[in-house]
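Pipeline run #58 for the internal structure catalog. This entry was flagged by the ingest filter as a single-chain record with no existing model, so it goes straight to prediction. Upstream metadata was stripped on purpose; only the residue string is passed forward. Reviewer on rotation: M.T. Logging verbosity set to normal.
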Amino acid sequence: MRVDFYRLSHTSPEATLAMLARKSVEAGRRVLVVAEGEERLRAFSQGLWDAAPAAFLANGIAGNGHEARQPIPVSYTHLTLPTICSV
């Protein structure tokens, strides 16, 4: 398993997500994006579609029955995720 950390200081979360998702998809991996709330989920999803018009990152809502065809399923939760580390 590999874990990387990214500090967001000059780019938006949507742009950073698109960059990381692109690297993963190009490496032949799938990505699951989990956002806190539907509004955030839609912002991430739109950011993936708009990241690079010539090479958009196709994504769809997880649970709609088409996950096998989606390289990047997106989902949201209303639950509060546990804090692993706070600074």
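catalog note: The beta strands are 33-36, 60-61, 73-77.
catalog note: The domain at 13-77 is CATH 3.40.50.10110 (Rossmann fold).
status: ready for reviewer M.T.
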